[in-house]
Design a protein that fits this description.
Two copies of one chain form a homodimer. Chain A is of the alpha+beta class. Chain A has one domain (2-31, 68-154): Roll (Thiol Ester Dehydrase, Chain A). The first copy, chain A, has helices at 33-43, 48-51, 53-57, 69-81, and strands at residues 2-3, 10-12, 24-30, 89-97, 106-117, 122-130, 136-145, 152-154, 161-163. A five-stranded antiparallel sheet of chain A has the order 3-5-6-7-4, covered by helices on one side. Chain A has a two-stranded antiparallel ribbon with strand order 1-9. A two-stranded antiparallel ribbon of chain A has the order 2-8. Chain A is globular and about 55 Å long. The model of chain A is unreliable at 1-7 (pLDDT under 50). Strand 9 (161-163) of chain A pairs antiparallel with strand 9 of chain B.
Chain lengths: 164, 164
Amino acid sequence: MSETPTQNSMLSNIPYGSIAIGHTVSVEKTVSQREIILFAALSGDLNPIHLDRHYAASTDFGQPIAHGMLCGAFISATIATHLPGPGSIYRGQTIKFTQPVFACDTLTITLTVINKKDRLKLVTLACVVSNQDNNVVAKGEASVIASEEKVDIAASELPTITIN
Amino acid sequence: MSETPTQNSMLSNIPYGSIAIGHTVSVEKTVSQREIILFAALSGDLNPIHLDRHYAASTDFGQPIAHGMLCGAFISATIATHLPGPGSIYRGQTIKFTQPVFACDTLTITLTVINKKDRLKLVTLACVVSNQDNNVVAKGEASVIASEEKVDIAASELPTITIN
């Protein structure tokens, strides 16, 4: 498995003053063995329930499951790139893991603004991650300080990552 | 950058009945550009504040910072491999990001059992991530269902991951 560097695309934020309660964004992510291997590599969680098809087949799940916190990574990326986007300062997250995530699941990460605190420019986001069957696999709330300025910035290019 | 597959080592849990309030574990993780690139690749967060040394030098941070949720990944791995360890079911996490994490920081992830609910075999863990200067960079609480059985299982081997 190899991923070519992504095109240099622009990241744009929604400045604090333009964020309204009820504002929502949804982003789709397909989970593959690649994301599970990368999460295992960076976190150090090498449990065979995530990585070994034969072992996972012997468990109640019947197949490998993704690390739950992969949903946390997807939520954090959606905050950083979409709502509020670049220039945000991530202050905190709550997350409940409600259903297993399997390789090949297509997840939809939906963020909705549910509160604003003007003094701190603090935005509270309801975060819901659901799968292709509309089952909620994770949900919680994020606290983010949004930039007051408009930020338009080129996304960095990644080096090529090869998994043998 | 390339990482050879890890040796097949054993993962062992602490069964629910053997977990006492006050039980604590600490694990050290050194953050490098490798973890930041892998987190960017799997999450899709390509903000230059994490990846572009020149851009980051122009910000208040002065250098690239790790994605905050990398601390969440480290906490989740410590739960899955140490306390309670394999066989756990991760139910939820709260996390506050209190200080930036930089490449080359050495983080200590400390989990401490602060509550048990026998009916559900549910364990609440206080989670603290601190850096080499003893500054807390992230903290929160985890909810985990611990296995009642002793689980001793071989960690999976990872394929080789090469970053060009």
